[in-house]
Amino acid sequence: MASTAIPTMGTTLQLNNVPIGQVMDITGPQLSTDTDEITNHSSPDNTEEFIATIKRTGEVTFPLVFNPEATAHAALFTAWEDRTLDDYIMTYPDETGTASAGASWDFTAYCTGFSMSAPVDGHLAADITLRVTGSPTFNPTGS
To answer: How does DSSP classify residue 76?
Structure first.
């Protein structure tokens, strides 16, 4: 079977159904599961044992080419400032590369990081951190 890959150029991110423009590299959600050791004197083969406990949803992070006049960019700052819980949808391209037609994540999150930068030899930018809360929904065949 031949290897396949889906190009990610064209991935979109929405905040309360408003597209967030000029998003660069997106990381997350960073899913993990905590474990609790339950090794005891009766453990088979004297080998450690664990049970799964809390599922962690982690963060979604991304830099963006910041425009203070863009509605969604201002909304991200307001989300941080007001500490609001908001709805986000991240949609990937499909296997043909068609933007916003592939798998997606739906999640609620707080904007917990909003870091601006204005380098001498660059553009106005912001690094955004979203802290996912509750169970995110992955839609493998598009939303």
So the answer is: H
All structural domains of the chain, each given as residue ranges with its CATH number in brackets, are 12-35+52-139 (2.30.110.20)
What b/e readout covers 51-83, taking b as 16+ CB neighbours within 10 angstroms?
eeeeeebebbbbbbebeeebebbebbbebbeee
As a whole number, the mean pLDDT across the chain is 94
How far apart CA 92 and CA 103 sit, in angstroms, is 6
Q: Are 128 and 114 in contact (CB under 8 A)?
A: yes
> Is the pLDDT score of 91 beyond 60?
yes
Question: How far is Cα 128 from Cα 25, in angstroms, rounded to an integer?
Answer: 11
Q: How does DSSP assign 19-68, residue by residue?
A: E-TTB---B----EEEEEE---TT-GGG---EEEEEEE--EEEEEEE--T
Is-cis flag, bond preceding 63, omega within 30?
no
Q: Nearest Cα to 90, choosing from 7, 5, 9, 15?
A: 15
- Cα angle 25, 26, 32 (rounded to 5 degrees) comes to 140
Q: Which pLDDT does position 142 carry in this prediction?
A: 65
Mean pLDDT, to the nearest integer, of 1-22?
91
